[in-house]
């Protein structure tokens, strides 16, 4: 391979697990980012080894990438087990890649640092701001209804994903990368940086430098992913009004770290967590706006005592130390605690005759004030009405009136 002994002898070997693929638009910048991570590793005195891993491309892999999350987790674990790595950097972001990579790394418990892909820029079509995912379905329905032309649809297709990066709405990707940051497994502030922003490249090389230090410090995920850190992740997903898929992934992540996380715990934390991020589909803005408003650090700082800020992060500092000085620059995008998008119950765990083991519902924000009221408008729209049981924790299903 052309390396001399001086290139690697006595140096930490850092595996860069790269989920780049020609068929994953969310990771199309990862070949370049891997080079930037390597730059940081070399500078800090490490020896980088890039290892390709399966890319779970949400738009193209059918029937669902969910079928392959555990396969990528196993691949990550086995790459780290079978090759002589001292530490690893994980490049992921498109929906299931984030939990998959972390699950594999947690199982190995080598010093690990996650580099989030970052959200893509806002979509744009004829001056209309487009959000990935929700606007795809919306305008597809409009096309089928004859309300827009095929030419309009082509323009929407061209404008909805106009840069590298993962979906810029608060879907699974934005939720899970933020959760990873709140748990402490990526550099503070990393998850909100848009993928094409030059600061994203800076973050990648900083991650490379930091992972080498982590190896010398022997700072492992088992010291970072504690029950308190997992609660911070859950609270963060709730304050973002994040994807309900995050529940499935967080439970799996927690278990890989050797900790229990139940649906009931999620429900319990939802009761006291306000929704502060005004991001589509629950809110109004997109991830690019969130970044300009201060990003996740600013929102976590707003959450204050809802988080355990004594938890350790990959930075080698506590979460609280990382949040010092974080500011909100647009309080309509990142709401203050006394002016939340939703005061509490942004999500509820339901139990009843249709779902004896539990189900999850995320009421739409405009009717969220009804959450504590039985027979609320949003819950009477289906053939089964879901109601919070007055005597028990959780919700119960009732026949529709
Ligand atoms: Fe990759 Fe949405 S398609 S995150």
CATH topology name of the largest domain, in short, is Rossmann fold
Name given to the CATH homologous superfamily of the largest domain: Response regulator
Distance between the termini: 72 Å
Biggest sheet architecture: 4 strands, parallel
Number of domains: 3
- Given helix and strand content, the structural type is alpha/beta
* Sheet with most strands: strand arrangement: 2-1-3-4
Mean pLDDT: 91
Associated small molecules: FE2/S2 (inorganic) cluster
Which CATH architecture of the largest domain? 3-Layer(aba) Sandwich
What is Rg? 21 Å
Q: Can you tell me the CATH class of the largest domain?
A: Alpha Beta
Q: How many DSSP H or I helices?
A: 15
Give the total of beta strands. 10
In helices, the fraction of residues equals: 25-40%
Assembly type of the chains comes to: single chain
Describe it.
By secondary structure, the chain is an alpha/beta fold. It folds into three domains: 5-121 and 165-323, Response regulator (Rossmann fold); 123-160, no CATH class; 348-401, no CATH class. The protein has helices spanning 5-8, 30-43, 69-82, 97-108, 134-144, 150-160, 172-183, 198-217, 221-224, 227-239, 245-256, 263-270, 287-292, 295-303, 319-323, and strands at residues 13-18, 47-52, 87-92, 112-116, 123-125, 128-130, 348-350, 359-361, 384-388, 395-399. The strands form four sheets. A four-stranded parallel sheet has the order 2-1-3-4, sandwiched between helices. The chain has a two-stranded antiparallel ribbon with strand order 5-6. A hairpin with a 2-residue loop joins strand 5 (123-125) and strand 6 (128-130). Helix 2 (30-43) crosses helix 8 (198-217), helix 4 (97-108) packs parallel to helix 11 and helix 10 (227-239) runs antiparallel to helix 11 (245-256). It is globular. It starts with a helix and ends with a strand. Residues 367-401 have low confidence and may be disordered. FE2/S2 (inorganic) cluster is lined by residues 26, 58-59, 94-95, 132, 166-167, 171, 173.
């Amino acid at each position: 391979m052309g390396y001399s002994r001086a290139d690697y002898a006595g140096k930490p070997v850092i595996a860069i697990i790269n989920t780049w693929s020609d068929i994953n638009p969310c990771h199309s910048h990862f070949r370049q980012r891997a080079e930037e991570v390597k730059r940081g590793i070399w500078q800090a005195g490490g020896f980088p080894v890039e290892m390709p891993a399966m890319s779970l491309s949400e738009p193209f892999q059918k029937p669902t990438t969910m079928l392959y999350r555990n396969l990528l987790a196993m691949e990550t674990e086995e790459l780290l087990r079978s090759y002589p790595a001292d530490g690893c950097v994980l490049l992921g972001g498109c929906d299931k890649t984030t939990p998959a990579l972390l699950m594999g790394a947690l199982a190995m418990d080598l010093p690990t640092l996650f580099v989030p892909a970052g959200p893509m820029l806002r979509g744009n079509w004829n001056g209309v701001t487009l959000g990935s995912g929700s606007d795809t379905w919306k305008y597809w329905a409009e096309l089928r209804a004859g309300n827009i032309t095929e030419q309009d649809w082509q323009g929407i297709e061209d404008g909805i994903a106009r840069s590298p990066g993962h979906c810029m709405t608060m879907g699974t990707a934005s939720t899970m990368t933020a959760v990873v940051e709140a748990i402490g497994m990526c550099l503070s502030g990393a998850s909100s940086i848009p993928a094409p922003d030059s600061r994203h490249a800076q973050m990648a090389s900083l991650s490379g430098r930091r992972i080498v230090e982590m190896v010398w410090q022997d700072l492992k995920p088992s010291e970072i992913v504690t029950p308190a850190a997992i609660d911070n992740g859950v609270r963060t997903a709730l304050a973002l009004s994040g994807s309900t898929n995050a529940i499935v992934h967080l439970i799996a992540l927690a278990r890989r770290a050797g900790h229990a996380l139940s649906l009931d715990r999620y429900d319990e934390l939802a009761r006291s967590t306000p929704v502060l991020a005004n991001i589509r589909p629950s809110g109004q803005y997109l991830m690019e706006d969130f970044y300009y408003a201060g990003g996740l650090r600013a929102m976590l700082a707003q959450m204050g005592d809802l988080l355990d800020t004594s938890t350790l992060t990959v930075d080698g500092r506590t979460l609280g130390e990382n949040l010092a000085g974080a500011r909100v620059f647009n309080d309509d995008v990142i709401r203050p605690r006394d002016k939340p998008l939703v005061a509490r119950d942004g999500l509820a765990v339901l139990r009843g005759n249709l779902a004896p083991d539990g189900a999850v519902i995320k009421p739409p924000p405009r009717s969220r004030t009804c959450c504590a009221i039985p027979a609320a408008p949003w819950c009477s729209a289906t053939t089964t009405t879901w109601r919070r049981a007055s005597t028990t924790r959780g919700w119960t299903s009732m026949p529709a009136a």
